[in-house]
Design brief:
Chain lengths: 360, 352
């Protein structure tokens, strides 16, 4: 009896279905290319040993989106949206490279070279992105502006700011500690994966060990009721946007370190869409309320797996969007209210039929 | 009697119009600034003014449909991708498949309207939030465009050239009484005409038809509209269909403007369209907005890059920052208007 109950809850949990979807996609990949799931240890030129293989690559490349999506989960659970994250990624990279630039002027003295102490290159971008998150949060929570419009300001203006910071130039850097963020590895595990793990664990602890997560769900389900019952919903909303800003900054550092350069036009382009998709695929509803951070992680991995798989088919990268669209369309139709209600009704009827048979 | 004459005046000061006036005021200020600074090098010429229209016709045409969607309280992120798909269909059809352009244009209009209706049905009947539905539509349209071709296809067809070449030159009589072209040469081209025609059609639909009143009613409150027995479902789906038509027309205008189809064309233009509407006083919470406001919003947003071009020393990215600042300004104005009208409503409630 107890076992049956557990099975029911498992079937109803959205995280379970997200994992099933991911496994199915991996299975498809495995059938097409048997070496899809292989992981091996390779020794690089400088003697470090690195894990190598498609699954590692998927985890590695999904880290930027996963990190942003952690904050986006909270924002969506509060019934908001943040579409400025892509621009913040560009801002973060631009500021970091501003401090690290290894441009034409110093090209004659190659080697590790920074204009400023390395800590600035990490802390200033994160501080600026956090402040931008605070700006978004203030507009949404204090001025009660629609989130999509409030964050549209920085989405449009942010890339302009990123270009002003670097005066429209693209800097490159060869500074080893900075390269290490996106390209290095510890114990064979690529550093972006470790950073993502730290961020996810920190978020899980913050959300579930403090009462913040419960407050978010309360405000997301009914803002008025929670305000009346004494929750300071403004502060809760603001914290979510500040966290998203900070996480976008971290993601921007990883991105710019990967390409050891800044790219104000293309860095983080479309990240807001991918992050929102990761959250929705993971099972958090766009309309606010209950959220699941682990589901978001799986959602982000699903997106990256699809991308990798489509690359294997040899399909052009822009066309991936069409595949993404079809999969998302499937998920949102299944998640939509009328379809869910229809399924529930069918199950009810079947159970009633069963009950009738028993009586007969 | 005095009340009768005062009424139209009071109507002009409706708080809903205030945002349109703000747009008009800031547009005039910005234009005046440009005239004072760069009047000597031709900023005030009719040519520059008309170029504001023709350079932004595709944004403006799309903004007509977007205004309607925003008034119902929805949003459409797919407009740029659908316009790009339209351009690609026309380019691929005429250049690669050798079909007649009119056939391709008709087909692309059909695709635009079909996608719009489909997304509207998803929003209405499946209860999927418009943001997610149209995001999916954007991915789908962009992906299909890329599947058709990754390279930019240029269009070389006499009919497209002829359509793009339609120009009505502005003329005035000279001393001898002959009509000559004004200097510098200014002309109204086909896409400007389509743009203005769509604005007028949109305004008539919104202000003079039952459909338009339903649109405002749904934006005000879906529940009230349903309880009043208005055809909410049909209106909503049709609004998205109309927006699809506008996106396709915007794509056609873009094709006539650049004479090529490209899978990454108009990337991110949906945000230009939405911000034009917001600057024009359309409220994203629904229920408030005017076509004339949107027209002014498009013009105001177009004036910023024009001034930066005339300046010559400023970098193009300043346009992005100024647009961001403008958005912030208008959002705060909207906020103030909403707060003041809520206050008056409350006052009226307590006094009765």
């Amino acid at each position: 009896m107890k076992h049956g109950l557990k099975w029911e809850t498992l079937l109803r949990s959205k995280l379970f279905w997200a994992v099933v979807a991911e496994l199915l996609i991996l299975l498809v990949g495995f059938i097409i290319r048997p070496d899809f799931l292989n992981i091996q240890i390779r020794t690089l030129e400088d003697g470090t040993r690195v894990l190598f293989g498609t699954p590692i690559d998927i985890l590695n490349r999904s880290s930027e989106i996963t990190i942003i999506a952690m904050g986006m989960t909270l924002v969506l659970a509060l019934g908001g949206t943040d579409i400025s994250v892509g621009a913040l990624v560009a801002v973060s990279g631009a500021i970091a490279l501003k401090f690290l630039r290894w441009d034409v002027l110093v090209y004659t003295t190659p080697g590790d070279y920074t204009v400023m102490p390395f800590a600035y290159a990490l802390l200033v971008p994160l501080a600026v992105c956090t402040l931008m998150g605070l700006f978004n949060g203030t507009l949404v929570a204090r001025l009660k502006i629609q989130p999509i419009i409030a964050t549209l300001i920085l989405m449009v203006g942010g890339r302009g700011i990123a270009q002003i910071v670097t005066n429209g130039k693209q800097f490159t850097t060869q500074y080893t500690p900075f390269k290490f963020i996106g390209n290095g590895s510890i114990l064979g595990i690529p550093l972006p994966i470790i950073i993502t793990l730290v961020v996810v664990v920190a978020m899980l602890v913050f959300v579930r060990r403090t009462s913040y997560g419960m407050f978010v769900e309360a405000v997301g389900i009914n803002p008025n009721a929670s305000r009346v019952s004494g929750l300071r919903s403004g502060v809760i909303i603001m914290i979510a946007y500040i966290i998203t800003g900070l996480l976008s900054g971290i993601s921007g550092l990883i991105y710019s370190s990967r390409i050891i350069s800044n790219d104000s036009n293309n860095a983080g382009l479309g990240y807001e869409m991918d992050a929102i998709l990761a959250v929705v695929l993971g099972g958090t509803s766009m309309t606010g309320g209950k959220f699941t951070l682990m589901g978001t992680v799986v959602g982000s991995i699903i997106i990256r797996t699809i991308t990798t798989l489509v690359f294997y088919f040899g399909i052009v990268s822009e066309a991936i969007m069409a595949f993404k669209a079809l999969i998302i369309a499937g998920v949102i139709v299944l998640q939509s209210e009328p379809v869910r209600r229809a399924i529930a009704r069918r199950r009810e009827r079947r159970q009633m039929n069963l009950g009738g048979e028993l009586h007969a | 009697m005095p009340e009768m004459t005062a009424k139209p005046f009071r109507r002009l000061f409706k708080p809903n119009y205030l945002m349109v006036y703000a747009t008009l005021g800031i547009f005039l200020l910005l234009y005046l600034f440009g005239a004072v600074m760069y009047g000597g090098i031709g900023f005030t010429s009719l040519r520059t003014f008309l170029l504001l229209f023709s350079d932004n016709a595709y944004i403006g045409i799309s903004a007509v449909g977007m205004t309607m969607v925003l008034i119902t309280g929805g949003i459409d992120l797919s407009v740029g991708a659908v316009a790009s798909l339209t351009g690609m269909i026309i380019a691929y059809g005429t250049t690669v498949m050798g079909l007649h352009p009119l056939l391709c244009i008709a087909f692309s209009l059909l695709v635009g309207v079909g996608l719009g209706l489909l997304m509207g049905a998803c929003v209405q009947y499946l209860n999927v939030p418009p943001f997610i539905t149209t995001l999916t539509g954007m991915f789908l349209a962009r992906g299909v465009t890329s599947l058709i071709s990754r390279e930019s296809i240029s269009i070389k067809h006499p009919m497209i050239d002829a359509l793009a070449g339609i120009k009505f030159y502005l003329k005035w009589p000279n001393e001898a009484g002959e009509w000559v072209k004004i200097k510098p040469v200014a002309s109204i081209d086909l896409i400007t005409i389509i743009f203005l025609a769509m604005i007028i059609i949109g305004a008539i639909i919104l202000q003079k038809t039952r459909f338009g009143r339903n649109v405002y009613a749904i934006g005000g409150s879906v529940q009230s509209a349903t309880l009043m027995g208005l055809p909410v479902a049909r209106t909503k789906v049709l609004v998205y269909g109309f927006n699809g038509l506008c996106s396709a027309l915007a794509g056609i205008a873009y094709v006539l403007y650049v004479k090529s189809g490209w899978n990454l064309a108009l990337l991110g233009s949906e945000l230009d369209v939405i911000s034009s509407c917001v600057i024009g006083g359309v409220m994203l919470s629904g229920g408030v907005g005017y076509m004339w406001g949107t027209l002014l919003g498009v013009l105001l947003k177009a004036t910023i890059p024009a001034i930066i071009t005339f300046n010559g020393t400023m970098n193009s990215w300043w346009a992005k920052i100024f647009t961001g600042v403008l958005l912030l300004l208008f959002i705060i104005i909207q906020r103030a208007v909403v707060a003041s009208s809520a206050r008056t409503a409350r006052k009226a409630e307590t006094s009765t």
